[in-house]
């Protein structure tokens, strides 16, 4: 067997081993997508009702004096919380988030604001450390399965820096999970809170009810608004987790298909190399037989 044929067959075995790995990772990501999607769908109603509750409380009072609601007149510092993955093999998932974050940084700097970084995920941490960008705080190890406790820890750090006056606004950059085949990197402002119009069910539409609050609205806001920030951070983490699984499934599916195509090409090359070897062997046999025949004929003539 020629050296070329051995090399081609070695490459075929190597690609087949890689294809088994990518296929297994695709199946694992597919199984995890459904669980992550269920977490996203389960968390959205809570976020919507919490937003509606804050809107109701805010509508009942004319003085919204909470720090998480007030627009500071001279905003000089912005916190940006960037959510990336802990592992690779997810296509352009992390790079899309980092590109969207760079766009936000450019916008904030053009407004004369200093940017302070909070990063989740090893990919983002490595990206900014390689570029020698200072990171205020970072977290890693839970990009695929974040918990509310981890989101609360991040939110507490963001709120503490904001309420202490070290920052004037908080932004989040993460991947919004739309469908299994569609995800998009987005940048959202968390604080100061933007009052959103909540899409109420049809049976709840109409004139808003008048409430009597116990305790007072200001106290309720003080209790609800930190929960709102925690919810925004948690939603960013779980939507990013679902998007990461979807991106990894798509990347591994493409890698498996590429491996299959490469195996076909290599198999064709191996067949061609084997055919060349067989042809060469046949020619050598025919040549040898012809040489023996000529030698026998020459010996008979000499006799």
Describe the model.
This protein has 303 residues and is an alpha/beta fold. The protein has a single domain, classed as 3-Layer(aba) Sandwich (Pyruvate Kinase, Chain: A, domain 1). It is 61% helix and 13% strand. It is built from 5 helices and 5 strands, in the order H-E-H-E-H-E-H-E-E-H. Helix 2 links the parallel strand 1 (77-83) and strand 2. Helix 4 crosses helix 5. The protein starts with a helix and ends with a helix.
Topology:
Layout: H1 3-59, E1 77-83, H2 93-110, E2 114-120, H3 122-130, E3 135-139, H4 148-163, E4 169-179, E5 182-191, H5 217-302
Parallel strand pairs: 1-2, 1-4, 2-3
Antiparallel strand pairs: 4-5
Helix pairs in contact: 1-5, 4-5
User: What is the helix tally?
Assistant: 5
Strand order across the largest sheet? 3-2-1-4-5
Question: Sheet with the most strands?
Answer: 5 strands, mixed
Mean pLDDT: 85
Report low-confidence residues grouped into runs of 5 or more.
Answer: none
Order of helices and strands: HEHEHEHEEH
CATH superfamily: ATP synthase, F1 complex, gamma subunit
Morphology call: elongated
Structural class: alpha/beta
Q: How many independent structural domains? A: 1
Query: What oligomeric assembly is this protein in?
Result: single chain
End-to-end separation: 42 Å
Helical content class = 55-70%
Supply the CATH class.
Answer: Alpha Beta
Strand content: 5-15%
CATH architectural name: 3-Layer(aba) Sandwich
Cα gyration radius (Å): 32 Å
* Secondary structure: number of strands: 5
CATH topology: Pyruvate Kinase, Chain: A, domain 1
């Amino acid at each position: 067997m020629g050296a070329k044929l051995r090399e081609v067959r070695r490459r075929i075995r190597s690609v087949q081993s890689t294809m088994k790995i990518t296929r297994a990772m695709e199946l694992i990501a597919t199984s995890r997508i459904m669980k992550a999607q269920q977490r996203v769908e389960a968390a959205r109603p809570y976020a919507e009702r919490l937003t509606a509750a804050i809107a109701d409380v805010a509508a009942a009072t004319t003085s919204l004096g909470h720090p998480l609601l007030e627009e500071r007149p001279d905003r000089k510092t912005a916190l940006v919380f960037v959510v990336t993955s802990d592992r690779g093999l997810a296509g352009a998932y992390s790079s899309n988030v980092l590109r969207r974050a760079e766009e936000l940084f450019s916008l904030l700097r053009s407004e004369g604001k200093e940017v302070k970084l909070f990063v989740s995920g090893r990919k983002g941490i490595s990206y900014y450390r390689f570029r020698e960008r200072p990171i205020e705080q970072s977290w890693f190890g839970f990009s695929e399965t974040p918990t509310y406790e981890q989101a609360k820890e991040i939110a507490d750090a963001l709120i503490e820096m904001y309420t202490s006056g070290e920052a004037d606004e908080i932004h989040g950059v993460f991947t919004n999970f739309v469908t299994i085949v569609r995800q998009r990197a987005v940048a959202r402002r968390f604080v100061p809170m933007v009052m959103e119009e909540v899409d109420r069910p049809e049976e709840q539409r109409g004139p808003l009810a008048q409430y009597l609050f116990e305790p007072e609205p200001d106290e309720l806001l003080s209790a609800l608004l930190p929960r709102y920030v925690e919810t925004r951070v948690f939603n960013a983490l779980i939507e990013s987790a679902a998007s990461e699984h979807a991106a990894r499934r798509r990347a591994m599916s493409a890698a498996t298909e590429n491996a299959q195509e490469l195996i076909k090409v290599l198999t064709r090359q191996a067949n061609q190399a084997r055919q060349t070897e067989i042809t060469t062997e046949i020619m050598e046999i025919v040549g040898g037989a012809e040489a023996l025949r000529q030698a026998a004929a020459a010996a008979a003539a000499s006799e």
